[in-house]
Specification:
Helix content of chain A: over 70%
CATH architecture of chain A: Orthogonal Bundle
Largest sheet of chain B: none
Helix content of chain B: over 70%
CATH topology of chain A: MetI-like fold
Strand content of chain B: under 5%
CATH class of chain A: Mainly Alpha
Shape of chain A: globular
CATH superfamily of chain A: MetI-like
Number of strands of chain A: 0
Structural class of chain A: mainly alpha
Radius of gyration of chain A: 23 Å
Strand content of chain A: under 5%
Oligomer: heterodimer
Distance between the termini of chain A: 37 Å
Chain lengths: ~280, ~280
């Protein structure tokens, strides 16, 4: 009963994973006149000496560093808004979640139209807001704007996910806690700070960790909209692996980058397990 | 008191409405531009509010996209490809993963505990880290540019196994003990009792995987070459990247690409939101 799943997992997950680790210590290339040699940590040494890799790592970290708090915070805000008992809340929930079901490539294409330079809707909007003083901006080709623009699009597409997870968290908070705090004369804000926020501890951990991992996987938006440019300003770790391994066919070198990438994701995930375990022991 | 209540209600609705506009406006823009027949007019109105209003809506762009003008193949070709891939992954996945989970939950054998922890550990491994060696495996198998390259590696899915495993563990053991006494085999118990009862998990897994693989982009650009096996996401990007950009056609293609999931979402909104929220209950 187990064998179909196990065989597939071994063939397409465990073996490739082992291959990535082994190749990362070799000169493996897809097509090469030279035989593959074992070179120890050579690939890793070259990887860490490569400015392009550091730039990709830095971009990914900046992306995660902004997207994770902003998207989680916005998700929580939207969740509290649509958790109110008011007519029409289901319609608003439905609308806020809608971009999550739209394929990322489609989202990018549509936003590209909005971001058009010099004549696009966003530039018009900025012009009206600033009475013609600012803009037009080249959102995707200006080195200081490209990454923030990618961040904005990603949050727009993804925040419904965090909202829905927080909504589930909010609904699991017992109503009595709110009643008790109301009797004690707590204001809505005090309720949020002293009841809602701490009760969501597990949800916070899950949302933060999942969003971090998702952020580190950033690829589609960048590949569609900027191809990593301008001047590598939006290149990411996954795109770096893709270019080295698939376009340049440097399998060994790309594998070293992939191993580093998996390690980063691993550390974040283990952090989640530790944080959640502490919570269970307290309860 | 009544007035204060009314004011705060209005304030809440205006905030909700503002967010709704932010989420809806690009979707509306996509629909509006796709209905404009005149490319010149689209360019002229791109930066004005008139971009959001199709003065004389026409379906010309849809006709040309469905005929395949400007793309490598008619839209339906890519749609069929995506459907074959997603339906195969989800359909096969449900059986393979639930079967494995059932075995892990019910059968007692040596190494069971190890296998459960292995599945949990494999949940962490990000696909992006394996893409390059998996690409070599696919080439070795001679599966480059095929459906199976896009289906078979994704059937066994650790997270789905885990969801089914959790569910089966909560099913009362008395059910299958009774069936055992009546002489049912484990496979019969799985097929007659466990699987029919796990409909909620099946729905969750099906929705989460459909979202994931309808969206997949990195892998299909690596393993497909021409339109024959190419899914919608890659075709969308190719069409978008091809000068000169005909925005009317691009937006029609984009809307058609997003439509199947959007329709499913509007029909089964509660299930979608519930499934995504449930992905947050792990750990």
């Amino acid at each position: 009963m187990l064998s179909p799943a196990l065989l597939l997992l071994i063939g397409f997950l465990i073996i490739p994973f082992a291959m990535a680790i082994i190749f990362s210590f070799t000169t493996k290339r897809l097509v090469s006149p030279l035989p593959t040699r074992f070179v120890g940590f050579d690939n890793y040494v070259r990887l860490f000496a490569d400015q392009t890799f550091w730039q990709a790592l830095r971009n990914t970290a900046v992306f995660a560093g902004i997207v994770v708090p902003v998207q989680s915070g916005l998700g929580l805000l939207l969740a509290t808004l649509v958790n109110r008992r008011i007519p029409g809340r289901n319609i608003f929930r439905g609308i806020y979640f809608m971009p999550v079901v739209i394929p990322m490539v489609v989202v990018c294409v549509v936003w590209y139209f909005v971001l058009n330079y010099p004549e696009g809707l966003l530039n018009t909007f900025v012009k009206i807001l600033t009475f013609g003083k600012a803009g037009p901006y080249d959102w995707l080709r200006d080195p200081s704007l490209a990454l923030p623009t990618i961040i904005l699009i990603s949050i727009w597409q993804g925040v419904g996910f965090q909202m829905v997870v927080y909504l589930a968290g909010l609904q699991s908070i017992p109503e009595e806690l709110y009643e008790a705090s109301r009797i004690d004369g707590a204001s809505a804000w005090q309720q949020f700070i002293h009841v809602t926020f701490p009760c969501l501890r597990n949800t916070h951990v899950f949302v933060l960790v999942t969003t971090t991992i998702l952020a580190f996987k950033l690829f589609t938006q960048v590949e569609v909209l900027t191809q990593g440019g301008p001047r590598g300003g939006t290149n990411t770790v996954v795109r770096y692996i893709y270019v080295a391994g698939y376009r340049e066919l440097r399998i060994g070198y790309a594998s070293a980058a992939a191993v580093i990438f998996v390690l980063i994701v691993l550390v974040v995930s283990i952090l989640q397990r530790i944080l959640l375990k502490e919570e269970r022991e307290v309860l | 008191m009544k007035l204060k209540h009314w004011i705060s209600r209005m304030l809440l609705y205006s905030i909700l409405g503002l967010f709704a506009c932010i989420f809806l406006f690009p979707i509306w823009l996509m629909i509006s531009v796709s209905l404009k027949s005149d490319e010149f007019q689209i360019a002229k109105e791109a930066a004005t509010p008139r971009a959001l209003l199709p003065a004389s809506p026409s379906l010309v762009n849809y006709q040309s996209v469905l005929k395949g003008e400007g793309t490598d193949a008619p839209w339906a070709r890519f749609f069929v490809n995506t459907c074959i891939i997603v339906v195969s992954i989800v359909g096969c996945g449900i059986f393979v993963n639930s079967l494995a989970a059932f075995a892990l939950s019910r059968l007692r054998f040596r190494g069971r505990g190890f296998l459960v922890s292995l599945i949990v550990a494999l949940m962490i491994v990000p696909f992006e880290g394996l893409a390059v060696p998996l690409f070599l495996v696919i080439n070795q198998l001679g599966w480059f540019d095929s459906y199976q390259a896009q289906i078979i590696p994704f059937i066994a899915h650790p997270f789905s196994i885990f969801l089914f495993y959790q569910f089966f563990n909560k099913l009362p053991k008395e059910l299958d003990e009774a069936a055992r006494i009546d002489g049912a085999s484990w496979f019969q118990i799985y097929r007659r009792i466990a699987l029919p009862l796990s409909l909620p998990v099946i729905a969750t897994v099906a929705i989460l995987q459909s979202l994931e693989y309808w969206n997949s982009f990195l892998w299909p650009i690596m393993v497909t070459r021409g339109p024959e096996y190419r899914p919608l996401s890659v075709a969308m990007n190719a069409f978008f990247g091809q000068p000169p950009r005909r925005w009317g056609d691009i937006m029609a293609f984009a809307l058609l690409t997003a439509l199947p999931l959007l329709v499913m979402y509007l029909a089964f909104q509660r299930w979608f939101i519930r499934s995504v929220a449930q992905s947050g209950l792990k750990g």
